[in-house]
Amino acid sequence: MERDDEIPPELAGYQPGEVGALRGPRMRRIARVVVLVAVVALVLPGVLIGVSTASRTAELACRVVGSTAAPGAVALEARWEWSGHEGPGWYCYATEFGGREVQLRFLGFIPEVRVASPGVPA
């Protein structure tokens, strides 16, 4: 039978409140790199999907705007601009036959186009 005042071998040398590193500096560095790679692997796909969706939406919105505002345009292009006159966001540009570029509309930070049907209030 074990006595109550005996210290179990697992706790021999243990001092309450003693804090020590469970890993060496090399393992901590490796763990930090693994965590950083995991966070990037979780965040990066969402950012890429968001940017590509916004880009496709801006291109489609620019086509809709161009079909009504500049039907004779040679080319239509949606561009992201940080310092546009309406602030950062997507802008739609039309290139005319002579090569002159005209800004058609600001599409917004998150691109959208509101198309009103005749006789339906917008």
SSE layout and pairings?
Blueprint: H1 25-69, E1 75-81, E2 89-95, E3 101-108
Antiparallel strand pairs: 1-2, 2-3
What does this structure look like?
By secondary structure, the chain is α+β, with helices and mostly antiparallel strands. It has one domain (23-108). The protein has one helix at 25-69, and strands at residues 75-81, 89-95, 101-108. Strands 1-2-3 form a 3-stranded antiparallel β-sheet, covered by helices on one side.
List keywords for this structure.
122 residues; alpha+beta; three-stranded antiparallel beta sheet; 18% strand; rod-shaped
Structural class: alpha+beta
In DSSP terms, counting alpha (H) and pi (I) runs of 4 or more, how many helices? 1
Residue runs with pLDDT of under 50 for 5 or more positions? none
Which H/E pattern describes the elements? HEEE
The shape is: rod-shaped
Main sheet characteristics? 3 strands, antiparallel
Mean pLDDT value: 85
Radius of gyration based on Cα positions: 31 Å
Amount of helix: 25-40%
Q: What is the rounded distance between the termini?
A: 87 Å
Brief write-up:
The chain is of the alpha+beta class. It has one helix and three strands. It has a three-stranded antiparallel beta sheet with strand order 1-2-3, with helices on one face.
